[in-house]
Amino acid sequence: MSDIDALKNDVKKLNAKATQAKMDLHDLSEDLPTGWERIPEVARVAYEAHVALTEARRKLAAATPA
């Protein structure tokens, strides 16, 4: 597997993780005020997932020939 293929695979996995984190945050917001204690935890997971996805996309863009 080439480096670009590996980066594409990472982006695909991280995109799925970020999407799930976004949905978890959305679901939590719909259930408020129930579960309000989990806001920092769920938001942190969503934030970290999107940071990782953005970084992986940046690496893929840098590695892909123009």
From TrEMBL:
The keyword Ubl conjugation does not apply. Keywords: Coiled coil, Nitrogen fixation. It comes from the Bacteria. InterPro entries: Helix_hairpin_bin_sf (IPR029012), Put_N_fixation (IPR007774). It holds the Pfam family Rop-like. The keyword Coiled coil applies. Residues 4-31 form a coiled coil. Gene3D superfamilies: Helix hairpin bin. Belongs to the UPF0437 family. This is Rop-like protein. It comes from Sphaerotilus hippei. The lineage of its organism: Bacteria, Pseudomonadati, Pseudomonadota, Betaproteobacteria, Burkholderiales.
